[in-house]
Amino acid sequence: MKSPLFVRCSPGLLLLVAFTLLRPGAAFADVIEFLSGAKVEGKVVKIDKQAKTVEFEAQLGGRAVNRTYTYDKIHAVTMNNKRYVLNPRLDGASKGGAKLTSSTSTDSGMVRRSKAEIDAIIDQAGRTPPDWYDATELNYPDTLDLSFPEPAPGGWNNQKNVGQFVWDIINPNASRWREGVRLMHHLLKVNQDNPVVRTRVMRSLGDMYFRFFQDYARAAYWWRQAGVKAGVPDSVHLAECYWRLGNSQMAMELLNQRTIYLGMIKLWGDMGDTRKATDLAENYVRLGGSPHDAYLLAAEACRTAGQLEPAIRYYQKVLDTPLPEKQKERVERVRNRAVVNLEAIRLFELTDPKKVVNGSYRAESMGYEGPVEVEVRVQDGRIENVEVTRHKEKQYYSALNDIPRQIIEKQGVKGVDATSKATITAEAIVNAAAKALAKGAK
Question: What percent of the chain shows pLDDT beyond 90?
Fold first, then answer.
């Protein structure tokens, strides 16, 4: 499964170079062209290659307004009269000659693409290494067992067992995420004659692209290469990739299966079908599944949709359901999340930045491993910055960048969502931000 040769000249790198070298003294209006077909003129203020965002200043009603846009929504950026394409619109013919349906934009701003477009995007991305790949060091201990046995023999040893090395060393360190991907590609070569291990590695690659980079096209490619289909847990994450890439129908085809996974409840909610999410939660409980987990996710689906009264009722159902004899400690954590989320909802009416006094405010909420502290800076009725200032998270670290960005984009905590593998960390950031904003309410 060797990748063909590609020209190593990424849109992100071109934008970064252009911003660095051409920005001073620029006389031309900058332009962002969105995949939806819309355009906006103004000035590029900042490009964050790590977060894959472009901060843009435009004039609205005679006032300079800053907005931050993610790469995945942008077709092209023109800076200093030079145009850089980030994502093709795919409204022409594919390399194979098949005509692709033009992308359209939904009312929510998400791009809508045909199945042919999605398949083409996934195939192209999967066969193209990321722009940073060649410059990334292959870095792992000599003691690591590259045969990647599962389950790992012996006790916990993150210098020998691949899965434990990823969990302890790669996951918590954003500076090593790329090394993790490079290691997995190396394992594909080392184990080229072992289809079982190769499948395991492919699933790990899908997981890394999904969790670390929200690179849904490459995540989908590797999960598909691993044979992920309906009836296995990863099918929910593959469905999420299809939806986030722009095809809800492909996602629904994977989600409409007899086996109910908890992640389906959240994804239906994120996709905007709150009724489907809550019905699925009720069915999950009727079939003998954990009511605490199901009701919590139903509450989150309602909360994301802004349906706060139903959300409160589901959170209360979590608290009213007796603790089981088994897994009491785990379920107690779920109950604690319901308590914290209820508290946050009651603060939502105090989180309008227009009603917050200028200043920086800090608060914390419980994440996976411990308290997550967030600082929110408000100036002239706008959320200017959201930063995670302290945490102990060891997994799903990407939420620490993605959720603050969403809060700034939405100018509040309502409607912020996270990928299905970052729910608790994202929830903690949202709750902490709500508490912080409430502290500054007039």
Answer: 41
Cβ-Cβ contacts under 8 Å for 371 (sequence gap 6 or more):
364, 365, 390, 391, 392, 428
For position 25, what pLDDT does the model report?
Answer: 40
84: β partners: 77
What is the rounded CA–CA span in Å between residue 244 and residue 271?
Answer: 9
- The chain-wide mean pLDDT, for the chain, equals 82
CA-CA distance, 54 to 67, in Å (whole number)? 8
- List the structure tokens of 122: 């996934």
Spatial distance between the Cα atoms of 69 and 222, rounded to a whole number of angstroms: 27
Can you tell me which residue has the tokens 């129908």? 249
Q: What burial letters (b/e) apply to 3-14, b meaning 16+ CB within 10 Å?
A: eeeeeeebbbeb
Helix, strand, coil percent values for the chain (each to nearest 5): 45, 15, 35
Cα 252 to Cα 166: distance, rounded to the nearest angstrom: 31
Torsions phi, psi for 64 (to 5 deg): -75, 125
Helix axes 328-347, 423-439, angle to 10 degrees: 40
From the candidate CATH numbers 3.40.1130, 1.10.10, 1.10.150, 1.25.40, the one assigned to the domain spanning 260-326: 1.25.40
Dist CA 207 CA 246 (whole Å)? 19
* Phi-psi domain of 64 (left: phi exceeds 0; alpha: psi -120 through 50; beta: other): beta
The pLDDT score that the predictor gives to residue 418 is 59
Fold held by 11-87: SH3 type barrels. (2.30.30)
Pick the CATH number of 351-439 from 3.20.20.80, 3.90.1010.20, 3.40.50.2000, 3.30.428.10: 3.90.1010.20
Give the separation between CA 121 and CA 126, rounded to whole angstroms: 8
Collect all residues with Cβ–Cβ distance below 8 Å to 33 and sequence separation of at least 6.
Answer: 39, 74, 75, 76, 77, 78
Closest CA to 184 of 209, 210, 204: 204
Q: Which CA distances in Å does 431 have to 173, 303, 317, 319, 441?
A: 24, 12, 20, 18, 15
312 and 295 in contact (C-beta within 8 Å)? no
Q: Say if residues 302 and 310 touch (Cβ distance below 8 Å).
A: yes
Confidence (pTM) = 0.66
